[in-house]
Amino acid sequence: MSRPDISVIVPVYKAAGYVGKGLQSLAAQSLAADRFEVICVDDGSPDDTLAVLQAHAAAHGNVTALGRAANGGPGPARNSGLERAQGEYLFFLDADDYLVPHALETVLTHARAQDADAVFYSYVLVQGADDAAYARRKDMDFLVADRDQRVANFLAGELDGSVIFSLVRRSLFTDHAITFPPGLHEDIPVIYRVHWHAARIFVLAEDLYFKRYRPDSIINSLGHEQIDGLLSALRDVWAFTRAQAPADLVASLLPRYRRGLVGAVVSLIEKALVYFPTDAERRLQYYSYILDNIVGHGDFAGMELPVQSKKDRIFTRFMQAFQGEADSTQALRRFEDIVGDGPVVDSASFTRNAGSFA
């Protein structure tokens, strides 16, 4: 096979029963098979996932099946795919998901026509046995902006942090040594670096990707890994920004970053209410872990937070309710009683060390 135009990287873990739809959608692409390669990486699955991938590779000359000895998460699995990739562009597909038949041809055509380092496109979220659509990409307006504005939008939590809804020039990864970190939400630091380094992007408002919702997926579960992964990813993004940007730009972006961090914390809080609606003790443990995480890292130390939105209000009430008594059932009741109907807080600030709320 000559050098392909696109390398499609598919990390797979315990997916023997459902990876087939995505693989078949790749086999059915309108782009000629000799113009793209598919690199499937089994991440140490305990079931027969690797055998399924190997059987598919045997039937399709542009497919390679790799196996990792131990489970390391989607980041290291994607890195294994990156090491083997030869395409001019990279495309990432999750094992749960699938594409429209013209997806690869469409993004490649636009990438070439626009000389784009990255093409971002829309997707459809589907669920249930019949893959009923229930949502679409919501950040398209925030994507249509110059680099500096996109960076600010990303830091504020206004851009999707997934790598799977993009086509990226592979040299962007190799020239800037971009790799995926371990842990959950590992694609947030990667796609941020793509936005940072891309000289030119193209935004395509067309649904090309079907993202399946599976309740048993680890990213849709709730626990310490989700909290650590999300907040660590955002801290990585900010550390990268501080290392790359001049001081005046860092100063101007700091409020945007903190706004995004507030949004992330609130999203975690809201998940607890959804996942554990009748288990107050579980919610209390979860809230306590969130609080320990953000206070321990000093994320909001010395911060003045003007309350401008519902998320700001929830965040300030959360910090005020639990500060000093994160294990208190009374604090839990106080917070959850006022989240919906409590008085509006005009502003709040951290005055004690490690980001304690005053």
Automatic annotation (TrEMBL):
Which Pfam families does this UniProt record tie to the protein? Answer: Glycos_transf_2
- All copies of the Glycosyltransferase 2-like domain together span 7-173
Q: Which domain of life is it from?
A: Bacteria
**Keyword hit for Transferase:** yes
Transmembrane ranges?
A: none
Tell me the InterPro entries matching this sequence. Glyco_trans_2-like, Nucleotide-diphossugar_trans
| EC numbers, comma separated | 2.4.1.-
An example of a GO molecular function for this protein is:
hexosyltransferase activity
Top EC class per UniProt?
Answer: transferase
- Please name the SUPFAM superfamilies in this protein's record: Nucleotide-diphospho-sugar transferases
**Gene3D superfamilies, per the entry:** Spore Coat Polysaccharide Biosynthesis Protein SpsA, Chain A
Under what name is this protein listed?
Answer: Glycosyltransferases
